[in-house]
Amino acid sequence: MKRKIFFTVIFALFLMTSQVKAIESQSNENVSSEAINQLIQELGNSNTTIKSNAAKTLVDIGDPVVDPLISALNDENYDVRENAALVLGKIGNETAIDPMISALSEQEWDESQEEEEFGRALGTALGSFGEPAVEPLSEFLAGKEYSSSAGHAMAALELIGEPAVPVFVDLLYTELRVESAYHLRMIGEPAVDYLIPLLDDEDPNVQGRAAEALVGTSNPDVVEPLTKLLDDDNEYVRNMAQHALESMENQYPQESFLYGREREFFVEDEKREWLSSLEPIVKGRSEYIMPYFYPDGPVIGYGLYYKGYLTVDLLIGSEVNDSYMAEIYSVIDEEALKNGVEEVPVLFSYTSMPVEDVEKVEIPDVLLGLTTDEGASRILLPAGFMAVILIILVIGLLLSRKK
After folding, report:
1. 240-288, pLDDT tens digit by residue?
2. DSSP conformation class of 145
3. What is the rounded end-to-end Cα distance, in angstroms, of the chain?
């Protein structure tokens, strides 16, 4: 009898699960506008979990929510605007590209944090559309000088990568040449073939920026044209050509190595909370990693990157194998577990010393663990920099006492 009841219950659960799946499948096609609008408003909820769940559901529903999300780009709640942009990027329906670029251009960029975060979300989302977004972004940037909105559009193009290279090359002839050279350098090797002809351009500004964009390349085809520029009449062109050639002589591994588990974020508050959970791991003197720092070890930088992981900078030329990186990671992972973070993501990469004769110095805790949205906190700082900071602090104390 008990066995019969058991199988009856199991069969009933199976039927219920099948019905739920059928309802979910049907709801994605016939979900009501009221339900969609409710989900969109939840993107502005003060509870991050509710926001994230709403975003995931909207992504799962897909195309039926695109038009309401486009309307939400003008919502009064800035959280709704920001997260609507990110959801549109994850859905990937190309009809959202032009409205998102319009939202970028219509913004009154008052440099407030909220407006800047919305612009960054638009840039991130537009970058996820790939090649279909290249031409509209190019048209948006035509004839513009640098602004926050132009910066976010260019960041989107960098995310797109190789298909956007011709746009950046064209922008080298405009007021946006400085930023374009930077983004071309970030794209890297796919841009090299486009940049080599520009080293012979009539405009020295274009020549110099093209040489600057080639800093870090290992392509031997650039050696001859760069060498010719070492005797150029323009000092800037000569300096950039020399810098690019020197970077080839001091070539170091371009690979980065990610340990742990990278997280996916559906709303920005998720990422912000995640970054906050990582901050205690890198704050203070981080004694657990100091034995690996130069000159005793290969590490010259350790910090928190805004994309959601810790970074370990390894000195160029260091003999670091997989087992050694795994050893460093295990030390960081152990510290992360103490702070409740499992499988903490850590990115290892190679770089050079920021200045010559960098020394390890005692750094006040208040100056350690500082983070920004566009950079990382660092443990190792030049001694000269610290001297200036300490002088400023002393002068400030003396002035405060006089008051």
Report:
1. 999 899 888 766 566 789 999 999 999 988 988 999 999 999 987 678 9
2. P
3. 89
